[in-house]
């Protein structure tokens, strides 16, 4: 019933065909589902515990989070609209109060909202605390390895991250503040040196770097190390691209219209950056998943200027990439999340665009 753009579902693919190119990835548009104004980010989880993946979208223009409940067939029923702080920029899923039900934490421009899930797709009224000057991104992790979920938020104006340690009942400590490169727009938690402790990585949009902050145990961190990226990195993600057991990094660079892959040396330092270009221009968000069914992690960017989605396929020499497919969405996209949304058994895409989420079924 909401297949508003079904006529648009003609496939559009662009690929190269070098000897070691990955398979071409194909998508079909399943539908478009309304959310609030100016969506900023999207996450996936089973909020109502029916075995079907749901979505949550932060709406920067509305000051809300929209819940979309999945049918498992690629369609979504509009669920709760949850008021949070002003200008929500980013959100994450986690069980922050330890009751086994999925919760949400939202980084708003100058506050953080905690939404405790009831386990049926509804949420308790947001608990919002003032923090930050211009928050841009939030990531979860157990940074002090006490078994309780913590989170970290990036503040672009302050050039910092703040680590908030969870109590296990949905409340948090005062933040530990760490200076990173200028204008961090994206933060992730990932163990880059395989010591069992979650480290922190930021993409610094005016420094043109990532900052890697090694967790040295307890609530202490080492001095941030910088690694060069393309121009204006706005999104960072990780995957073990070359299958050596260590997490590698990839950034989407809005200024240089490319993606930078940083291969881990095995100790949390990284090899020289490698740039990958595609038809797509001005990436705004990035995600890592296997789209080609070869068990190697690929990545996807959604691109503001060209208004499309680009798949970068991991090649036969793992850790190198080429464009493996694209899909035009004809509206600026600001967020992307991967998951099995359509029951087809492959890694599908949910893309946050202007006022709606587009569901793209991977039919490769
Ligand atoms: Ca569900
Ligand atoms: Ca919970
Ligand atoms: Ca913890
Ligand atoms: Ca570590």
Topology:
Blueprint: E1 27-34, E2 39-45, E3 54-59, E4 64-70, E5 76-83, E6 90-94, E7 103-107, E8 111-115, E9 127-130, E10 135-141, E11 150-155, E12 160-164, E13 176-179, E14 184-190, E15 199-204, E16 209-213, E17 215-217, E18 220-221, E19 225-228, E20 233-239, E21 248-253, E22 258-262, E23 274-277, E24 283-289, E25 298-303, E26 308-314, E27 321-328, E28 333-339, E29 348-353, E30 356-362
Antiparallel strand pairs: 1-30, 2-3, 3-4, 4-5, 6-7, 7-8, 8-9, 10-11, 11-12, 12-13, 14-15, 15-16, 16-19, 17-18, 20-21, 21-22, 22-23, 24-25, 25-26, 26-27, 28-29, 29-30
Structure description:
- This protein is mainly β.
- Helix content is 0%, strand content 48%.
- It has strands at residues 27-34, 39-45, 54-59, 64-70, 76-83, 90-94, 103-107, 111-115, 127-130, 135-141, 150-155, 160-164, 176-179, 184-190, 199-204, 209-213, 215-217, 220-221, 225-228, 233-239, 248-253, 258-262, 274-277, 283-289, 298-303, 308-314, 321-328, 333-339, 348-353, 356-362.
- The strands form eight sheets. It has a four-stranded antiparallel sheet, with no helix packed on it. It has a four-stranded antiparallel sheet with strand order 2-3-4-5, with no helix packed on it.
- Mean pLDDT is 93; it is low at 1-19.
- It binds calcium ion (4 copies).
- The site of one calcium ion has 8 residues, from strand 4.
- One calcium ion (CA) is lined by residues 142-144, 146, 148, 150, 165-166.
